[in-house]
Design a protein that fits this description.
The protein is an alpha/beta fold. The chain has two domains: 147 residues, 3-Layer(aba) Sandwich (Rossmann fold); 64 residues. It contains ten helices and six strands, in the order βαααααβαβαβαβαβα. It has a six-stranded parallel β-sheet with strand order 3-2-1-4-5-6, with helices on both faces. Helix 6 links the parallel strand 2 and strand 3. Helix 4 packs parallel to helix 6. The two termini are 16 Å apart.
């Protein structure tokens, strides 16, 4: 079992937006709005900054981002989604290997994981570990290699079209996490995922285990 992290197991939406907003203020000389930040499709911290600031200053802006991310974590991270820990515990009890493939930097991952009280995962692939971010399948393939699992025996659960495209490229089954989305977003996401190929849709974390067992029964 492979999972995306942000927007799938944990709600860091406000934390990321505010961290990007504050770290980019010196560049734009103002605070960006949420839609302005989202227009950059922020799938990875350093990569977003590389699109905006001069290469010579990326390191400084990334350090600023991480500083804001750490300082805002307690007030702006909204925590694990209800049912996420129960799902992970149930999967472990069933003997599944569990990995994370995330666009987070390793530094941001370490900050959030330390405060999440989650048990260690069998593999964690961050943006620092790959040359190509999602939707490229590199991170998923690396996680499977670490866990010694074949793509045909794996499922990737995520909340974005990038996650879906990466899973298909890696020849891994995809599970669409719907629980972090509004009603309007769910409809749009389902259509976008459906247009890309086969997928299973999960309304809450507790439904993931049932879906995985259905897949296993059809093997």
């Amino acid at each position: 079992m492979l999972f995306d992290f942000d927007g799938t197991l944990i709600d860091t939406w406000r934390l990321y937006l505010e961290s990007f907003r504050r770290s980019l203020e010196p560049h734009f000389k103002r605070l960006l709005t949420d839609p302005e930040i989202l227009a950059y499709q922020p799938i990875a911290e350093r990569r977003l900054l590389q699109e905006i600031v001069e290469q010579a200053h990326v390191g400084d802006y990334f350090a600023s981002f991480l500083s804001h991310y750490r300082s805002l974590h307690e007030t702006h991270c909204d925590g694990l989604y209800p049912g996420a820990i129960g799902l992970l515990n149930a999967l472990r009890a069933e003997g599944y290997a569990i990995g994370i493939v995330t666009g987070k930097s390793r530094e941001a991952w370490n900050t959030t994981f330390a405060q999440s009280k989650l048990a260690p995962f069998d593999a964690v692939i961050t943006d620092d570990d790959v040359d190509h971010p999602k939707p490229h399948p590199e991170g998923l393939i690396a996680a499977l290699h670490t866990m010694d699992v074949e793509p045909s025996q794996a499922v990737y659960v995520g909340d974005s079209v990038f996650d879906c495209r990466a899973a298909h490229a890696a020849k891994i089954r995809f599970g669409a996490a719907l629980w972090s989305k509004s009603t309007d977003e769910v409809d749009t996401f389902r259509r976008a995922v459906g247009a890309l190929g086969d997928a299973q849709y999960f309304s809450d974390p507790s439904s993931v285990l049932d879906g995985v067992q259905i897949w296993a029964d059809h093997e």
